[in-house]
Amino acid sequence: MTAAAQPRFEGSYMGAAAKISAQAVMECKICWTPYDPAEGDDTRQVAPGTPFLALPDDWSCPTCGAPKEQFMVLDDPGSDTARIAEDLARRSAALVAEFTEIYHAKMRDVPLCNTALHVQAIGFRMHEGRPLGVLVAPWFMNLVQLPASGEDWSHLTPGAKEVQGFPSGEYEFLHNTRGALGGYKACSLFSPMADFASQRQAVEVAEAVMAALFDPDAMEETDRAADIRAAREAELAARADEDAEAAARRKDEETAAAKAKILASSPSRRAVLTAGLATAPETAAPDTAQPAESEG
Question: Measuring CA to CA, which residue among 26, 87, 79, 84 is closest to residue 53?
Fold first, then answer.
């Protein structure tokens, strides 16, 4: 059997080159000479940082001359990373496909949609074993968490709330389920999206959100502090309303008292009409009162 007919990497993932990451350290199975991509190969002027898969086709073991096909994986620190990246790409693509379908089927003609935007998954990464990232759509921007591999979230109750803690603070997520997508949790960031002039601007904001989410320095105030501030503001507003009502009552009372005083000190209508003589009718002459009454 010629070297060309042999599996590419004997003993390494059944010869599947796609399963070997750029960080893989390979070892010659003839003389045990390793190839470390971090070091490269001075004998062939291969620069440090060159992955094994990127070596020239005619590259061979610098010690015994064995061809590349005779190298096996000694260590591959990037293999898990590569598989995780592949899983994240697949699942975020499914998320984008689901909400793109929703947009075309139900949301495209809704006025609140920003037609300058399209559905895109931004910055998805693994957080505590679950995919987490930002989903941008023409009508919202949400922080979205998907279940871990093998985890079933189909039982989630749509609309149920859950608070999750991150280095930058605590955030409220709503539970939801979507057909083939299954269950997911979403934290609303922006809705509607009218303030975004372009997709690029929305992506930059989403990337900034993902960076700030895991940055303790991004925590300006805790949610508790915000609650305390809001409660204090409500208390002050209520107190101001009570003071205003008390002042209004005092004013009404003072006005009523002033009116009562005026009425008590003012002559009656009869007294006015009789020129003050009504209080002493027994001293008034009949012909004197008559002209006064006729004048009214």
Answer: 26
Quote the CA–CA distance of 127 and 131 in Å, as a whole number: 6
pLDDT, tens digit, 9 for 90 and up, residues 235-293: 667 777 787 888 888 888 888 777 776 666 655 444 444 444 444 444 444 444 444 44
Confidence (pTM): 0.56
What are the φ and ψ backbone dihedral angles of 285, each rounded to 5 degrees?
-80, 140
User: Do 2 and 31 contact (CB within 8 A), yes or no?
Assistant: no
Could you give all domains of the chain from N- to C-terminal order, each with its CATH number?
A: 3-77 (2.20.28.10), 111-218 (3.30.1460.40)
In sequence order, the 6+-apart residues with CB closer than 8 A to the CB of 219 are 167, 168, 169
Question: Can you tell me which residue has the tokens 């709503």?
Answer: 174
Q: How far is CA 86 from CA 33, 45, 141, 144, in A?
A: 31, 32, 24, 18
Burial 252-283 (b: 16+ CB within 10 A, else e): eeeeeeeeeeeeeeeeeeeeebbeebbeeeee
